[in-house]
Amino acid sequence: MTQSADAAPDAGAPLPQFPMRRTCPFSEPREYAAMRADNPVSRAALKVNGKPTWLVTRHEDVRQVLGDGRVSSNLKLPGYPHQFHIPEEMLAQIRPMLLSMDPPEHTAQRRMLIREFTARRVKEMRPRIQEIVDERVDAMLATGGPVDLVTALALPVPSLVICELLGVPYEDHAQFEEWSAAMMNHELSPAEYGAAVQALDAYLDKLVTLKEDEPGDDLISRFLEKNRSEQVADHVDVVTMARLMLVGGHETTANMIALGVLALLQHPEQLAELQEDPALLPGAIEELLRVFSISDSGTARVALEDIEVGDITIRAGEGILALNNAANHDESVFPDPATLDIHRKEARSHLAFGYGIHQCIGANLARVELEAVYGTLLRRIPGLRLAADPDELRFKDDAMVYGVYELPVTW
Amino acid sequence: MRVTTERDRCVGSGQCALLSPEVFDQDDHGLVVVLREEPADDLRAGVLQAADLCPSRSIRVDS
Ligand code: SF4
After folding, report:
1. Category of A11 on φ-ψ map: left (φ > 0), alpha (ψ -120 to 50) or beta
2. How many domains does chain A contain in total?
3. Complex ipTM more than 0.85, yes or no
4. What are the backbone angles phi and psi of residue A185, rounded to the nearest 5°?
5. Could you tell me the CATH number of the domain that includes residue A274?
6. What family does this chain come from, according to its entry (chain A) (predicted)?
7. Which domain holds residue A266?
8. Which of A9, A65, A74, A243 gives the lowest tally of CB atoms within 10 Å of its CB?
């Protein structure tokens, strides 16, 4: 491991490395609990380049950092804790996207989009989402089983939903799902990562150009239309925004669907309760989101000024990772945090969608999708069961978004 | 109980409209609107939860 001198201020003791692996898919990496107890704001070295960063692990502190206007999401700032190795030249060329913007640019772009994701709009999408889920479940049942739930249901549902919303032809899904999975992989070389981004952007560039000439009834077209008067984005911004929505819209929800089904199959008493009383489902979904916290390292920041977090002063220019998986297992907020409890009343306080101005814009859409999928499976395939040894499942330890590669099920 | 919001901070996450639909809604721009500035006491729990979970801390509740 390479480690710069300033990575270890208390000389000698090497810093723990980040990311840390989960030993159990249902819980946080083991190191988090110890950090929360002894060193809730502590230093670590990024595995990818040995650079030091701050890890923030308590629920309260994570909320404070993510809600603080004195931290930046700008990934081009020198102290930004990157999870990938991105060569300087490539970094210089990266176009900022919503996630990596600060106000006022962020506010302007986000405001162009939030109307698409209001609680009401998302509710209106519910019937169509249900239809999509039913079609996929029909197809799944028609095979007679066993099937891989990831390819049969978990991936196609959110992929179809986001394609329809954005106006991206679903016929092309195999392609962009592959690019998008590549972009989430920590272990890819910079060249491979760059190639995936470029390929997806080239694809979306064509699509956006098409919609500039011939708008349809979709989010990209509506964005373009509104942008004519507001002028907050140029063509490349729209392409970048479309990439973020497309990737963010299916990869995360897909992983959450598969993991949630796995968790419920592993907790048959709670599964039976949900079958009895589907009204418990929304609460159960919050709890599943909390337990898995699948996008744990997506909340990277840089301090713009010196800020106090707990007993620590984080200096201007230093990198911060506000770990939502650690926050979501903070025993002071969620007693017995490793236990899945669909009745947990404080589950909604989880930070699985982040917090602050960058909180996931699609959170409520994701909730509706999860409800449709879990609800339909419980109702239509009550005999669903795992068709593999749980110990042999392969989890995405190497990815930005946690998940399971395959989930063989039968009924 | 009195509810006020700072609309220029709102990021349109819709948590409030979801948690306490009797008191909060989102306008056509996705920004928070308060439907009842002085909601009845039985709505208190929902309002407090919305204020707590609002990611941009745009909601203020004065008792
Ligand atoms: S929860 Fe907060 S940020 Fe979200 S819509 Fe309501 S006021 Fe706005």
Report:
1. left
2. 1
3. no
4. -85, 120
5. 1.10.630.10
6. Belongs to the cytochrome P450 family.
7. 5-410
8. A9
